[in-house]
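Much of what follows relies on a compact textual record of a protein's fold. A record is reproduced here so that you can trace the correspondence yourselves:

. . .
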Amino acid sequence: MVTGASEGTGSRSRPRIVAALSGGVDSSTVAAILHEQGYAVEGVTLWLMRGKGQCCSEGLVDAAAICEQLGIPHHIVDSRELFQTNIVDYLLAGYAAGITPLPCSRCNKLVKFGPLLSYAQEKLGISQIATGHYARVRFNAELGRYQLLRAVDRQKDQSYFLYDLSQEHLAHSLFPLGEYTKAQTRQIAARYGLVTANKPESQDLCLIETYGSMRNFLEQHLGERPGEIVDTQGRVLGYHQGIHHYTIGQRKGLGIAAPRPLYVVRLDAERNRVVVGEREEATQGEAWVQQVNWVSIPAPTEPLEVEVQVRYRTPAVRATLIPESSERVKLQFAEPQFGVTPGQAAVWYQGDLLLGGGILERPSS
């Protein structure tokens, strides 16, 4: 469906671009910046699921309001089935299997950037898209390769969630906010008088906005699956209502009494057990990573010294990356790391340059 104004006279001579609009201040500001710069902007909102939240009904309304304010067309693409298959079903299968999946990078690749670029090119005849992500892209002529970099604002940097994008995605994508801080973005939005300028910050995960919490989402879809909580020697210490409510390194909410702090060390899906132990037992010096995507450089054949993030909110740490193949590598951490979680992404950098990333494997023992 399309709402908003049609392109004005002479717009065909201006460069055309699609602005991905979630209904938040970041994507709204991107559309306004590009519009002021002389682009013929068309807003596109992906309808991912029903309910409140920036990516759902509230977001659709706010995105439409921004397009009306700027006088640009607004397209709504029904992506609910795609989101259900690639994200909701994927999450549920992962949690049920005892891993903690990371949906955001997968969503960016399979639900957002790929389908959005296809829609722009095939339905609108537009080759470029722009999003409100805090990241930067540059072209390295020597390598003949597009490279992904951290945003200027390290506190808002979202390159971690973009590690799985392809060269095709990066070649046709703009990230105008990569050079700005979040405070500057809000200042720009206020200067334009955007209706979303003072909209509160959204959750990192849209499912939380819709269901209230990840626990609520999992309870609604997976229900209760009672089992035992055991120590690393197999002694029963208590009981749980489903391994999907736990993650590696978790300390709070275990519901067991012990003379010393205990942490989740492993989730045993086969026996439906949560295994707990002391902090050292939830710490490891190395990890294997699969489904690797090399972003800014070709796949190496020799070890690399890198800085690795094993979760979005954790700082990067020094590690040696040893490639087994182009799609599987071993990370040897300079210092043992606590709570390395199967299903999450490990993303490696050299300075601001994102080299690549992949999915942390479950340890073999």
About this structure: Residues 1-10 have pLDDT under 50 and may be disordered. Residues 299 and 326 are 5 Å apart (CA to CA).
